[in-house]
Amino acid sequence: MWRDGLILPIVCHIWTSFSYLNGMGPLWSPAVLTRKNDLTMLVAYGPGGHPVVAEETPLEQLQQLSHERALHCPNCRSVVHLRGGPGKRAQLHFAHQKGECAWSTEVESIRHMRGKVVLANWLREQFPQAAITLEERLPEPNRIADIFVAHTAGQRWAVEFQCAALELDEWRRRHSAYRSAKIIDIWIIGDNRREKQEAFIEAIIAEAQEVMFLDPLVTPVRIWLRWPVTRDTLREWQRSGNTTRTPLLEGWVGHLGYGALLLGRLHEVQLGEQGKLVHPALSALEARTKLLRAMSTASSVDEAMLTRYLRHSLDEEAIHEVLLPLVRAYLRDPDLLQRYNYGRGHSGQLPAEADQRRVLQARVWFSRLAQQGFSPARVQELAKEVPFVGPYAAFVGYVEMLTAMVC
For an engineered disulfide with 251, which of 14, 70, 231, 267 has Cβ 3.0 to 4.6 Å away? Predict the structure, then answer.
C-alpha cells in the first residue's frame, strides 16, 4: 500500500484465477435469486422504488404492501401480489395478477436489483443536478436502461449493471444501438461474473480500456477495477526495481495483454467525462507510470522529477534531508567515488587531497544524519525507492557505494 493512502492492494492475474480472493467473496449467497424454475419472482419494487425481498421482509409487512397494491414488477412496473408462504405449497414470492410481463421474460436477481439502487444513489451523489431514473424505457434505442442519466448539458448515459451471461453479439447490438442514439453506455459487471472468462467482458475492456465489477450485497459496497497493461508498461515497472509499488504479474488476460486488478469501495470511484471510471489509486498509478517513462529516457538525473516520483512513497523529511542532498553531491562530481576507490585511488595513484576532503565531509554528514534517525542502512533503504531506470540507476549505485564506504 502506498504511504499516501491512495493506493489499495493491486494484483494482476489470469481471468480464471481468483482463488486467492475467495476470502473477500460476497456475504450473501448468490443462489438466492428471484427466479426458481424460471417462474418465481422473489424481488419486487416497493414504495419509492425500493427493492422488497420476499425472503427478507416480515410477512405482515409483505401482506400489507400487497393489500395496498404497492408492489410492482421490476420489468414492466405493473402491480404484483404476494403469493405462497407458511402453510402453503410454494415459497413466498411475487406474481402478476394475470398474464405475462409485457417487457421481459427475465426475472431479476437480488444482486441485480440492489446493484441498480446502489448505483443510482452513487450517481445521484455525484450529479445532483442530473435526472437519474431506474428502468428507463427508451424508445430509441428500444431498450430499458438499468439506470438512465440525463445531464443538464444534454449528455445522456445509460448505465447497465450486467449480472447474467451475455452473448458477445448481443452486447455489440446493444452497444451499437446506444451509440447510434447518442447515448453513452457504461457497463458495470456483477461480481458473480468476476471469475469468468467471457467474450463480452473482454469486449467492454477493449472498448473502454477498463471495467468495474460490483458487489452490492456487502457494506460498504465493494468494487474491482480491471484494466489491460501493455508489455512496455510491464518492462518499465520491472526496470524501476520497486516491485512493492507495482502489480504482481501472473499471466495474460484474454487477447489484450496483462490485466491489472484494483480492489476498493464504490464510494472511492467517480464517473468522469464520457463515463470513464476515475479512482484516485488508479489515477496515481497512471501518473506514476507516465513519470517513470519520462525518467527512463531522461539524459540526466532531474531533481524535480525525482521529487515528484518519491512523494508517492516517502515523506518530505526523507526526500529533502537525505536523498536530494545526495543528488546534488552526485551531480557535482558523479565520478568521485570511482576515483577514490575506497581510499586506494585509481591507476596506481592515491586519491587527490580534494577527493579525500570530500569523502571526509561525507562521513561527517552521515554522522549527523544518524543522529536524526537516518543510519547508513536506512539511507540504503531510501535509495531503493529511486527507480533503477535511465540515469537514476547510476545514482542508486553511487548511494550504495557511498554508504558502504562510510560504514
Answer: 14
Query: Are residues 67 and 73 in contact, defined by beta-carbon separation less than 8 angstroms?
Result: no
Spatial separation of the C-alpha atoms in residues 329 and 199, rounded to whole Å: 55
The Cα 109–Cα 38 span in angstroms is: 12
Pairing between β-strand 131-138 and β-strand 143-150 as defined by DSSP bridges? antiparallel
Which residues, other chains included, contact 134 with Cβ-Cβ below 8 Å and sequence gap of 6+? 49, 116, 117, 120, 146, 147
Burial 119-138 (b: 16+ CB within 10 A, else e): bbebbeeebeebebebbbeb
* DSSP code per residue over 61-116: HHHHHHHTT--B-TTT--BEEEE--TTSSS-SEEEESSS--SS-S----HHHHHHH
Helices (H), 83-158: 110-126
Q: To the nearest 10°, the Cα dihedral for 173, 212, 185, 290?
A: -110
Q: How far apart are CA 54 and CA 58, in angstroms?
A: 8
86 — pLDDT class (breaks 50, 70, 90): confident
Tell me the pairing of strands 211-215 and 184-190.
Answer: parallel
Query: Domain coordinates of the chain in residue numbers?
Result: 10-26+110-292, 43-96, 299-406
Backbone phi and psi for residue 221, each to the nearest 5 degrees, phi listed first: -65, 130
Q: Write the DSSP string, 152-211.
A: TTS-EEEEEEE-S---HHHHHHHHHHHHHTT-EEEEEEEGGGTT---HHHHHHHHHHS-E
Determine which helix (DSSP H) or strand (DSSP E) holds 403, and give its type and residue range: helix 392-406
User: Could you give the CA distance from residue 389 to residue 377 in angstroms, rounded to a whole number?
Assistant: 22
| 111 φ/ψ sector (left φ>0, alpha ψ -120 to 50, else beta) | alpha
CB-based contact 162:187 (threshold 8 Å) = yes
C-alpha to C-alpha distance for 30 and 109, rounded to whole angstroms:
9
Secondary structure class of 82 (helix, strand, coil) = strand
C-alpha span between 378 and 186 (Å, rounded): 47
Dump pLDDT digits (tens) for 93-141.
Answer: 888 877 666 655 455 677 887 888 899 999 999 999 999 888 777 877 7
Mean pLDDT of the chain: 80
pTM tops 0.70, yes or no: no
